[in-house]
Structure prediction request, 205 residues.
Amino acid sequence: MKTKIIWITSTTILFIAIIIWFVVYRAGGTDLDKSIYYLTDEYMEEKISNSSYRTYSQCEVTRVVDGDTIDVDCPFNKNETIRYAYLDTPEVWKKVNGKWEEDNQCFGKEASSINKKLVEGKKVYLFDQSPKKDAYGRRISSVIVKEGKDKNLMVNAFLVGEVYATVYNSRDTLFKILNSGKEENMKKLEEISRDNNKGLWGKCN
Prediction:
């Protein structure tokens, strides 16, 4: 319990720091800067050590389905599908009469493209946010990709903060209990970006 409390507190502090930096330095800016979404190697080691084998895995991305979904090969589970936690990106595909057709919702291609640039063909750290899979059998995870020394990119936060995605409000009670405070932190990032008319907020409304 003590470890869990420390982890929740450190996560909250981290997101508060991101939000403050976002307000002070990024509001109104146009240059893409991923530095505020990076975790240090030391922080990652602590995060991994505080995770069990059931909630953490390092996997290779075999396919980017769209902006918020990837297929991965993990050490003990091949060909798994991962749904990014806390967010939703515009759709690029829809199923019609049992067949997949292009949907092309506003900013869907941009979200899919940036996701490919971030993770396609790379090894990623997956931290499951729920012991249950979603209705489509996908694991619900936070995704982190290492881009260099002390550059462990929080992909979920990046997609919301740079407005390739909007926050997804889960209706699952267990998910909300296990992730108390995390959805709220994502919403704060979303509100700041919306107020500054960034990303899909500026192009799709």
The helical segments are 2-26, 41-49, 108-119, 155-161, 173-178, 182-195, 199-203.
